[in-house]
Structure formats: C-alpha cells, structure tokens
Amino acid sequence: MEWFSSFLIVNLIGISANLDNTGVGIAYGLNNFRIPAWFNMIINIIGFFYTLIGVYLGSLISQIISPADIGLVSFFVFFCIGIVTICNRYSSLIYRKKHSGTKIQQPRLRDAIFLGFALSFTNIAAGIGLAVAYDTLIWELIISITLWGYISIMIGNAVGKNLISKMLGRYSSLVAGLIFIAIGLNQLL
C-alpha cells in the first residue's frame, strides 16, 4: 500500500504544480492557436531545471534543519506555494479586465522561453518542499512535475475551445493552490 501512497503523492504534486500550465494551453486554445510540441517542450525543460534548483536548495536546507522541524518547514513551503498560486490568479483577473482587448499571437521561441520562466517559479519552491519532505522520491517527483507540465499544456490547449475549459481555466489556480495547501497540511500529520 505504501507504493500506492507514493504514486498518489507524486502525481498530485505533478498535477498541482502544473494546473497553471493548463490555463496557458486553454488561453491559446480559446484563440484557436495550437501549441506546437517544441513550444511545450521548451517550457517544460525550463521547468525541469527550475525544479532541480529547488531540490538542491531544499537539500541544503534539510542538512541545517533538524528532522523534527522538516515537516513544519515543508508545510510552510507548500502552504505558501498554495497561497501564492491562488493570489496570482486573482491579480491576473484584475489585470486581464484592464487589458481585455489583448490578442494572443502564434507561439514564438521567445514566448516559449518567457512562459517557461514565468510558469516555473513555483517549481523552485516545490523543489525545496520536495527535497525536505520527500527525499526518497526526488527523481520521481521531478519527472512527474515535468511530464505533467507537458500534459497539462496539451490538455488545456485541446479543450480550449469547449465551454468546460472556461470553467477549468477560471478555477485552475484555485484548485492548484488548494492541492498545494492540502499537501502542506499532510506534512503536519
């Protein structure tokens, strides 16, 4: 049963770290643009390296902090990621209302690089939390975050034209934030 718990945690973290990627895919899909595989790959290669940086920083932190405090630190990191994810969504809603006439152009290389960096900042914090809380699952979690990042953009882009996608796009950051908070609370138990 322990393998199932690990499998579930690995995938929940991978999914919740990338629900914002779904929103990006939806945004392009709503404007009838198909995100090319190379564009998606660049975004997620950047995300992979950001996660590695976070894991390295988390490993350093875990050497300094006592094992008793690791759960508390992990809770704090995941809780903060959740709150920031939720708050970023609401600030983008305010920004979007002011600039509702903005049109998305066909994806270009510099757009992929910019989106890769913008979508991957949470990967550093997630990597720190992973190294502190799940030191035995590091590579599984890094691969999960990277793969779910790619899948999330593909799914978001594919459903971007449907009515359901509008609802998912609207609440994806809230769901991602709540999942991060739930994972953080799990660290306290």
Automatic annotation (TrEMBL):
Keywords tagged on the record: Cell membrane, Membrane, Transmembrane, Transmembrane helix
Q: Does the keyword Transmembrane apply?
A: yes
Keyword Cell membrane set for record: yes
Per the record, the domain of life is: Bacteria
- Residue ranges annotated as transmembrane are 6-30, 37-58, 70-91, 112-132, 138-159, 171-188
What is the name of this protein?
A: Sporulation membrane protein YtaF
Source species: Siminovitchia fordii
